[in-house]
Structure formats: structure tokens, C-alpha cells
Amino acid sequence: MSPQRPLAEFVKPPEVSSAALHLEWHEVRRRVRRRRQVRATVLVVAVLAVVGLASQLFLFRTPVEPFAWRATESAEGEPRLLQLAEGSEVKLSIDSVAQLVEQTDDTVEVRLERGRAFFDVVRKPSRRFVVKADDVEVRVVGTQFTVIRNGRDVDVQVSRGIVEVREGDQVKRLTKGESWSRHEAITLAPAPLPPEPAVEEPAPVVTTEPKSPQPKRPVKTTRVREAEPGPAAPVVSAPAPPPPQDPQPAPSNEPTPADTFAAAMRARSEGHAKEAIRGFQQVTERWPSSAFAPMSAFEWGRLALDTQDDPRQAARAFERTLELATASSLIEDALARLTEAYARYDVGSCRRVQSEYLRRFPGGPHVRGVTKACPP
Amino acid sequence: MKGDGAATEQLFLACAADLTRWVSRVVLGSDDAQDIVQDTFVSAFTQLRALKQPESFRGWLRTIALTQIRRRFRKQRLLRRLGFAHAEPVELETLISDDAPPEVVTEVRQVAALLRQLPTDEALALVLRRVEGYRLEEIAEQLDLSLATVKRRLAAAESHFAALRETPS
User: Fold this and answer.
1) What are A179-189's pLDDT values in tens digits?
2) Into which CATH architecture does domain B1-88 fall?
3) How far is A277 from A300, CA to CA, in rounded Å?
4) Do B154 and A1 touch (CB under 8 A)?
5) Taking Cα atoms as reference points, which of B93, B28, B89, B38 lies closest to residue B64?
């Protein structure tokens, strides 16, 4: 490669005029300013992004302030799904309010202010998962359970796993299918059910507060109900409790769905099945648009089938459940129990409902029982 | 040296005409010379603080200009491959002086043709060598390549050039 004679001396580009150079300079100056502005903007955005990211990481690793997270119900009445950063899920029912009080690597604490919440907790032995409802504390390792709070009344229902319920010094372990309740006697006034003038006062299993001689003072009863035969209670889809009650509600003789439902629940847990059926049936038929109606219809059917051996009444109740329920888990349970009821007196309907269940819930928990339910 | 103010304008007016001529020779008839010069000054003035030796401003400008040329050539080649652009005929009449011997005119035309065919670095090495008469070390510095790489690229370009010269026009 020998050096070549340069061609530059014969390549003569046209001269650039002074005017053209000045025009060029103005364009260059404009573009330089614009580029600096863009760079400054990008720098500011980058700094803000880094600061934002750092603050997110910081917040994630440190306890959040109380009231940092709050959820209220969607308008459609469907449970609202809340996904926690560590993987657990909370489903809030209508008119329910919960707060994430703390979320760190070690502890997750949710406070249920009112209403009903279903928890599906990811198993993490190194992390403490606590749900507080009033002064009742539910500790979890990895499980599914529901907490219902209505004023001072608290219900805990375990769908899977084990939870510990703490109330003061008392600790109760609940396993799958078990439930725990604390109801104030004053809020559980006997529902004025037409066939019977009054509901007899139950004897509390555990009394954590001595009964007061003054009639207006609430009497707190705490009880644990063992798991019942049959399908587990469909806790997710169960109706939500009413909005928070006034601390000193105005006295009224008019029964409410909440009162009637609570009285029926209490009657059922005390073994007064017929009275409970009347209560659940009353809620279902008198307040069909109430949030308590679907669950009441289901409980009515369960009691009719399991305690009264009345499959026709049970089938009517479960059919009513299917008309009222919107949550798929309750529909699934109702279809399963309806198959069971029809199996006792109407094979054709049994097969129809059986097909419906298997079509809608091919992987459901009741598949085996439903498949074998209908007689040949 | 600050990036703003009259000093920058004076710097531009002092260097722009010379850089425009140089870029026009390097791109040999391309209409992009003026845009390349403008892009070069915009880039230079926004990173003026990176210039360590103010006395080497002109050389630094040419390095930036070569970067702009490479970028533009690669973009045009990609567009041609994708079918979004076509090779434009080269207009060299206004570029070659009237007193240029016929063999020089032919050589300039051949270099201009190769400039649009060869890989960018090979083409630029060829132009800097044949048109500007740069030494290998200068080419390496301007293209920011090692000397060995420049030799390889230039050898490849020269072989194409020789083949083109042997081909009957």
C-alpha cells in the first residue's frame, strides 16, 4: 500500500457564504439550547425516578404507618380482592373496611374495622400474620379463614389450616371447619320470629366478662363451634355484615336482617335447629335483597337436610340460594348440597343438578361426592 | 472556554467554513454535508467540557464529524437494505475543479462510487487516504481505530478500488 497523491487539491467544494454561516449558527445555537433543556429534563426525571424507587424500597422494608392502606367495598357487592405484597390475599365483602397496619419481612398485621374479610395467607414460617378485630387477635401461619366484625361482635371461621384466636389472656386454636364467636348479648336481641314469641337466652360456653346486674350492659359470650359434617361453610361468598352500628343505636322494635341472622346463627349453634331454620327462612324471604339472604338460604337448607331430614324443604332452600347468590363459592356449595337433597327423592333433578355442578366446577372440592350422589 | 455566548459564535464562524469544505470532500458529493456539519457543531457545543486541549479543537471537530458521517452512512445503508431508500446518483461536477486531469476525475469518481458500496469504515479509510492524503496513524486517530485495524480496512478497500479500476467503465 503505497502513499497516494491526495486528490484534495482537485476536489473543491463550493465556498460557504458568510450569510449562510450566520444562518447556520442560529440553527446550531437553537439546537444546542434545546438539547440542553432535554438533557436537564431527563436528568430531573431520572433523579425523581431514583428517589421514587428508593422511597418505595424503603417503605417496603419498614413498617407502614397506620391507615396507610385502606379499602372499602366495590359498588357491585362482589368481594373486593386485595393482594398483599408478600403474596397473601384478602377478600373484603360489601361495606367492609380493613387496614394494613404493618407489613414487613417479619410481620403483617391487618386490622378489620368492620364487616367481613376472607384471608388466604401464604405459608411463611418466618413471618407473623395477625388479623385484629376489636381486641380479638387472630394469628396465622398459612391458612384460609374468615373474620367477621360487627361492632364488638367477632366471628372467626377457618376453612383450611390452623389459626390461634387470642382474646385477652385466652388463646384458642381453631382447625379446619371450626369457628369461634364473641357476641354481645345486647346486640343479639332475640329476633321477633312470628311462630315463637321469643328466643331463650343461651348459656355461654366461656364467659370472659362477668354478667352485669344492669340489663343495659353488654354480656360478652365467647364460644367455639366444632366443625360440622357436610361441606365446609362457604366463607368467601357468605354475605357481609351490615355497616358499622351506632355505638348507642336508637331503640327500635323493628327487626333487622342482621339481628335475625345473628339470632338464627345463635339458635343453630345452641342446637335449636327449628328456631334457626325459621330465622334463616325469615331473612331469606323477608329481605331477599339483603346481603344476609343468600347465606341464610344456604343455612336454612343445610339445617333442613342435616337435622330435619327434610330433603324437599332443603332443595327449596338451596334452589333459593342459587337464585340469590352471586359468589361462585356459595353457588358451588349450594349445587353440591342440592344434588344431595334431590338424591333422596327426585333422581331426575339430582342428575340435572349433578350435570350442572360438574359442568361449572369440574375441579371443585365436591366433585367426588356429587358424582356418586345420584342413585342409579 | 464556556459553551455559551459570543465565544462560541466566534468559534463556529472560525471553523464552520473549513469543516464544511472538509466534510464535503469526505462524503464526496453527498447532499448531507451541511446537515453533518450542523450536527457536528451541536454535538461539539453540548459536550464542550469534554475537550481537554482547546488548541486541538479543529481535530476534535473532525473526529466528531466522522462519527456523524459513519452514523449517517450506516443509517442510509440500512434504509437501502430495507427498501426504504435508493442510491442517489452522485453529482461531482461542482466538486471537481476544472483543471483536474482526466485520470484524477476518474479516480475521484471511483472513490465516490466505492464510498457508497464498501463497509463504512473501509470507505472512510479509503477517502481519508486517497482524497485527504492522511497517514495511517492519522486515519487511526480520526476513526478511533487501532493502526492494525486501519491497515486491514484500508487493504480491503484498496483491493476493491483496484478491482474497480481494472473493470472497463
Assistant:
1) 888 775 433 33
2) Orthogonal Bundle (1.10)
3) 5
4) yes
5) B38
